[in-house]
Amino acid sequence: MTYHPVPYRPARLPAAEATSNVAELRQRMEQRRSVRMFSPDPVPEDAVLDAIAVASTAPSGAHQQPWTFVLVSDPEVRRTIREAAEAEEQISYDGRLGDEWLEALRPLGTDAVKPHLTDAPYLIVVFQQRFTLDSGGGVHKNYYVDESVGIAVGMLLTALQVAGLAALTHTPSPMRFLGELLGRPRNERAFAVIPVGYPADDCVVPDLRRKSLDEVLVRI
């Protein structure tokens, strides 16, 4: 494709409205927590689909949009994913992660048991497309794939939070089993599994502190 510029003239918000909008978003996002205890109650599917659509607006290297979002609601498929993930996680917690990583995880209270994979009504399995396959079987490299998909996942989590839904970025390692279970082509590699739903009535989360703005901001 050749470069074909088109006009871009978004509305410029008044300063007060811009400040109010982002302050409201900040307040919503400060309430975001990674949830591992989900209610099985159904959630609005349209909200989940719109959140995925928001994620797909993310910037990407050379605009190659190297992502696929697999939405899993089938209970049997979720059960199969959980069984495979827990098998890998058990190996990891038995020593593959290493002592330093296990020590870093200790304040989160995690272990190899992953009920969120079957309790949450939806799983969004995000795949990154390491390369593109054309209709003739040719292979074309994609660029900045990790960065592009990471940004898209961040936007997905933001959209889900705005919708009042809870989520978790779950990354069992290795994740090759996800491509096999979900029948994904050879150019796709699993990036994250994101359970989506409402927190359980007895949900608890670790008592953690986020860094303040002063701790993460450098002014020059």
TrEMBL record:
Domain Nitroreductase intervals: 30-198
Keywords: Flavoprotein, FMN, Oxidoreductase
InterPro entries xref list: Nitroreductase, Nitroreductase-like, Nitroreductase/BluB
SUPFAM superfamilies: FMN-dependent nitroreductase-like
Protein name, UniProt field: Nitroreductase family protein
Native species: Amycolatopsis heterodermiae
